[in-house]
Amino acid sequence: MEIIRGLTNLRERHRGCVVTIGNFDGVHRGHQAILQQVRDKADALGAPSMLICFEPQPKEYFDVFNAPARLTRFREKVTLLDEHGVDYVLCFKFDEKARSIKADEFVDILVNRIGVRALFVGDDFRFGNDRSGDFDLLRARSETHGFELTNLYTMTYEHIRVSSSRIREALAAGDFDAAEAMLGHPYSIMGKVIYGRQLGRQLGAPTANVQLHRYRAPIDGVYAVEIEGLDQQYYGVANVGVRPTLEEDTPTPILEVNLFDFSRNIYGRTVKTVFRHKVRDEKKFDGLDELKEAIAESVRQARAWFGARDAARDAAREP
Predict the structure, then answer these.
(1) Does 47 map to a domain?
(2) Could you read off the pLDDT of 29-45 as tens digits, one per residue?
(3) CATH number at residue 115
(4) Three-state SS for 72?
(5) What's the pLDDT tens digit per position in 176-211?
């Protein structure tokens, strides 16, 4: 896969694509069904596939504090798109210039800069300045300029409508099985382990910290997790949130993971934290002693949950 940052980096080899447009947050089963249609059409035409998206996402640009929490950061999304066969991701920076593009100017980009051969969008797709462009406009322009246009109807999985908002609801409720069923993969956060305050060592639970930067996760609290990206899979307990007990001046969301039976230095390593079970909500405690006791109890509960789950799995495998 190749990531193309804006129109200035388009090259002749990028022309003639089969295109779809959207946030594709989470790359869930509905998105996967779309990507399968795009790949099938690209294979039939002998053309590459392209997804067009914007960073930041438009809702984040207009109101970053009230925009929906992302299921995947851009890098995580790109990794999933690559797994599902997308050849090119054309990412536009969404700013005042981008929001002022008129609908016909956007169509001109599709036709003359990208050379679109087939386009897949939903019938509720809106584009251009003040969302003035719609599916009917695209249909008229497709007839004029000779590219195929396909309407992407609402996607369902096992008769359930699949959407990023429904997945966020499942995650907020701690229903990771439902979220996984809609995503087509377990919910996870990927990131690089950074240096923290080393406070976890004082509390008897050294942690691997992953900075979320401006990323607001759709979950917060303490979870039983699996860690991937090291020499083997490890179990652990993770906190996602702003650490209210520490009363930091500028609290920013962070992911802290205590890996069970693990003591190696992994600073700088990229790991994937897979969320399996919610232990409790994030809570402010009356001092570090109470926090230490709560961490120990969370570790105990997470170990017990994994023990029960693994025992049930082993029993199911027995003839």
Answers:
(1) yes
(2) 999 999 999 999 999 99
(3) 3.40.50.620
(4) coil
(5) 999 999 999 999 999 999 876 655 554 445 688 888
